[in-house]
């Protein structure tokens, strides 16, 4: 099938309103009788006899498939891989085939960052530094002081419910806070470890109201295992997950990639601190003499980040000069670096200390009108193996009503109705 040159607005429509576009165009062929096709992003097998996509009729399956095909035409291929990693024409080598049958026999911890932005002491301290920042006329982006950045919607409670239900192999759960703790949290549970910023962040960078310096030093949390998974509190597990879905048997973390051109385009056109972080990392690596062309097109998915302390420490040393500059900023600015979405994975990719792979997930902006469609789709899918392993409920943007919060809470309560052992 020839490439289609569609207007940009139509391309964006296709990409935004179809949840997951993970493959390159080489992965797709038009449906035909008596042939099986694999849609890797949803792990759904199509054939003339059966299709395992829950709660969708055949007409919707074909419609979704064709829309995904059109969108896939605009997905960048990774130069180093010559295609996306799910492409059937990129066959696994012997080492990769053997790796699939091994078991990851090492402990894995979880690390959450959490803040209660409604805490009166936190508000007072934040306002104090906001005034000082204003007097110095320092740079600051609205993303760094917006309500969404500090708002607590109890997402952590439901995320921990998903951990108990679907990741029983987790050793410890570290919750990083600024001297706070959730009121509902059973902090004496043997798996729960509350960690204060001052326990691992150098004193000269404290206090901080930005996740940038926090992320740069997470690997220095006392008693953290060599292998760990970093999560925002708005990440959730949708089904049972194996340790091997995050790490190879030899201990390398997987680099979960997003193949949508819209994500990459956004990094170069947007002026948000997150978008600037991407270009900041590339510029710094280029200045240090790395061949950044090999990582062009690499965009991490907004999902849990498996990592090793070795990779994180290596990145901390490599980017130390930049950290010394931006970690002084009390709030997000355009000179910061997002360590887990950008700095560590990009450097590790170039040094071949992680394994790039495809991943399926739902990203839901809780303020958008289409949020209920995603909620219904996830609830209809249940917790079965055909579901993507993760979803993110991002509290971004503004809304004229508070209905979004009610909708989100209702969805989470319906999907995770059982109280976890981490709650009182």
Automatic annotation (TrEMBL):
UniProt-listed Pfam families: Stealth_CR1, Stealth_CR2
Superkingdom of the organism of origin: Bacteria
Limits of the Stealth protein CR2 conserved region domain: 150-252
Species whose genome carries this gene: Desulfovibrio litoralis DSM 11393
Keyword annotations from UniProtKB, A to Z: Exopolysaccharide synthesis, Transferase
Family according to the record: Belongs to the stealth family.
A GO MF label: transferase activity, transferring phosphorus-containing groups
Protein name as catalogued: Stealth protein CR1, conserved region 1
Biological process per Gene Ontology, one example term: polysaccharide biosynthetic process
Domain Stealth protein CR1 conserved region: 106-133
């Amino acid at each position: 099938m020839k490439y289609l040159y569609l207007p940009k607005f139509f391309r964006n429509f296709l990409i935004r309103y179809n949840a997951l576009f993970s493959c390159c165009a080489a992965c797709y062929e038009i449906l035909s009788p008596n042939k099986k096709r694999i849609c890797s992003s949803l792990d759904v097998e199509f054939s003339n006899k059966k299709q395992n996509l829950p709660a969708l009729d055949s007409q919707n399956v074909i419609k979704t498939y064709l829309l995904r095909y059109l969108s896939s035409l605009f997905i960048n291929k990774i130069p180093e891989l010559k295609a996306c990693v799910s492409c059937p024409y990129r066959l696994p080598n012997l080492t990769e085939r053997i790796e699939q049958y091994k078991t990851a026999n090492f402990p894995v911890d979880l690390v959450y960052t959490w803040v209660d932005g409604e805490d009166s002491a936190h508000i007072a301290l934040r306002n104090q530094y906001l005034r000082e920042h204003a007097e110095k006329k320092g740079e600051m982006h609205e993303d760094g002081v917006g309500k969404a950045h500090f708002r607590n919607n109890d997402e952590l409670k439901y995320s921990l419910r998903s951990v108990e239900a679907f990741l029983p192999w987790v050793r410890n759960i570290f919750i990083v806070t600024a001297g706070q703790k959730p009121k509902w949290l059973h902090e004496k549970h043997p798996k729960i470890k509350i960690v204060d910023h001052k326990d691992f962040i150098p004193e000269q960078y404290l206090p901080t109201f930005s996740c940038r310096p926090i992320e740069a030093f997470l690997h220095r949390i006392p008693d953290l295992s060599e292998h760990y998974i970093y999560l925002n509190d708005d990440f959730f597990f949708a089904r049972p997950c194996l340790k091997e879905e995050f790490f190879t048997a030899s201990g390398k973390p997987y680099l979960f990639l997003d193949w949508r051109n819209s994500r990459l385009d956004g990094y170069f056109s947007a002026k948000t601190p997150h978008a600037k972080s991407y270009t900041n990392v590339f510029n710094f690596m280029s200045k240090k003499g790395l061949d950044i062309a090999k990582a062009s097109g690499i965009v991490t998915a907004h999902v849990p980040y498996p990592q090793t302390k070795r990779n994180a420490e290596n990145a901390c040393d490599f980017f130390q000069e930049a950290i010394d500059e931006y970690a002084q900023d009390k709030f997000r600015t355009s000179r910061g670096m997002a360590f887990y979405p950008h700095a560590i994975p990009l450097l590790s990719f170039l040094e071949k200390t992680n394994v790039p792979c495809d991943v399926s997930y739902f990203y839901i902006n809780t303020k958008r009108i289409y949020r209920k469609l995603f909620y219904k789709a996830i609830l209809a899918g249940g917790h079965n193996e055909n579901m993507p392993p993760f979803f993110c409920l991002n509290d971004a943007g503004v809304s004229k009503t508070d209905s979004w919060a009610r909708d989100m809470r209702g969805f989470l309560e319906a999907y995770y109705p059982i109280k976890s052992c981490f709650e009182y």
